[in-house]
Design brief:
463 residues, 14% strand, 17 helices, alpha+beta, three-stranded antiparallel β-sheet
Length: 463
Amino acid sequence: MYNLRTYIHDLNGSVMTRVRWEHKTRTVVFSCGVFADKSKWDSDQQRAQQNTVHVVNDHRCSAREINSAVSEMKEAIDAAFSNFAIAGHTPTVMELKEVVKARIDELHPKKQKGDSPENSPLGLFHLRSLSTIFDEFIADKKDSMCWRGNYSEYHYRQVCNNIQECIKASERYDSMVIGDVDTKFLNELKRWYVENNYYNKTTNKQFSNLITVLRWAKKQGYPVRDDALLYKTQLEDPQKVVVFLKYDELQHFMDFPFKEGSHLDKIRDLFCFMALTSLRYSDLRALRKSDVQGDTIKIYTKKTQKLVLIPITERARGLINKYKDITSGERLFKVPSDQKMNDGIKEAAKAAGLDRMITEVHTEGKELKLVTNPLYKTLSCHDARRTFVCISLRLGIPAEIVMKSTGHSNYAAMKPYIEIMEESVTEQMQKWDSPQKKRETLSELQAQLAELQKKIAEAEQGM
């Protein structure tokens, strides 16, 4: 059993058909390839009102064209389910998409050069709006369960929304369809990001997500231009400054006398526990009492779904014992929202006097900007994990051991920490007149740094 519903997309006016089956656990949304005016749409009949003409985003369609496209889509879906029923097989999401696409391709074979595109509404792939392509991409990734959480969808929606804002602000474009995405438009989009003061890092990341969607669209048969797929923003992105607590700062923060049981006392403890164990905020929030097994934390990380084994140090054990009988239920800690956590970390760090000045570098377009703030203003949840890595490396713990605790699987991920190790070597070089043990420490650090640099270079060559 399955059900169909045809409706008009609220953002771009394209006509969509949603199919649900197997108790609604499987859903596919197909675009019918035409556009309709919502004021001229019969929601009960799921058809365009008779004898109406629809002009949407510069696309002109008659009610007859729209209803014909809807009928053909529904017939293709009906035929697909009939064939699956005869075979005694319930289709997967991808199987249904492939069969329906094949049926539509039969009805509307690819046009030869010189054919008039107006003769085939469903064949007008180049007229599919870019926002519709994003909708289809997101639906495909969710249906195939490629994403573990909602963060990925949020990031792609953000890209799509920014594109729509760019189109609204532009004097050159009233809308954007997949066949018109070219270097000229992408340059316009890049200019919009720069003029709206986006950091180059953010711009580059969002363009990377856009190219991912375009590559997906190309595989679906959409006529994506090659110059769009090969587009590079050429915006420089300086390496991010690694913000972390030094060993003495972490010790000071852990020992700072906040009022026992106060809000800042709890926030400080949670931050320090992450710094002692390398846990991400999401893993800290999910950490169960049963994950603590003897002298080790065994947990499947939320981000990578990998099992990591984290040795429990004496200070970490003290925090576990402090809260294990206070927190009710299976969770080891009661963790506030990430925003409240980050706000609390800054407040606690300020109260503890963590005011070492941090200079961060970023670029907006071609303009290089330096921003200097005290450490407490920049500190956040993820800096606890960076603190673990930096202090571990500076103490001479081999990178392989550090990576087993953090869950990093590629040496290239350790590249931002090279500068921290180089700083350690510099500090040790100032101690050449110290006892022999100091010279041995320097030699060990230099060897470890050289080995890590070599492995990072090998990892980058293999990427």
